[in-house]
Amino acid sequence: xxxxxxxxxxxxxxxxxxxxxxxxxxxxxxxxxxxxxxxxxxxxxxxxxxxxxxxxxxxxxxxxxxxxxxxxxxxxxxxxxxxxxxxxxxxxxxxxxxxxxxxxxxxxxxxxxxxxxxxxxxxxxxxxxxxxxxxxxxxxxxxxxxxxxxxxxxxxxxxxxxx
Length: 163
Known about the structure:
Elements: H1 14-25, E1 33-39, H2 42-52, H3 57-60, H4 62-69, H5 79-91, E2 100-109, E3 118-129, E4 134-142, E5 148-158
């Protein structure tokens, strides 16, 4: 019995891979934006606290956090996740193929987000660098009163190919 080992398909030359990425990136434009809204629940905060082990009283003790912030606050580290989700909603399948991956997040928290607050997360395409296959998004997080709670940016890297 003879079996042949299948070889992976040959990758296209870098110029072709770059062409696929470049073509996909033309479907995105500076100024494109997306907003998502989310009401922060007690379970959101407690599930995240349990996953990462951050049970600080700012997040879990109503009396302690109430004296300092007016209520229990959401973990600021949840914000990159909301920004990522908003970015995915904005990009959709426009970069597939070849696909993309998150490369960085930078978020500055400037006001607490309390359990029960409804936040709006807006991402806007700020820069497209076809040569480096990077798309930069500005991010803004506001609460139900329009108060800025956080701002920053994120970068996605467009893949060379989907293989």
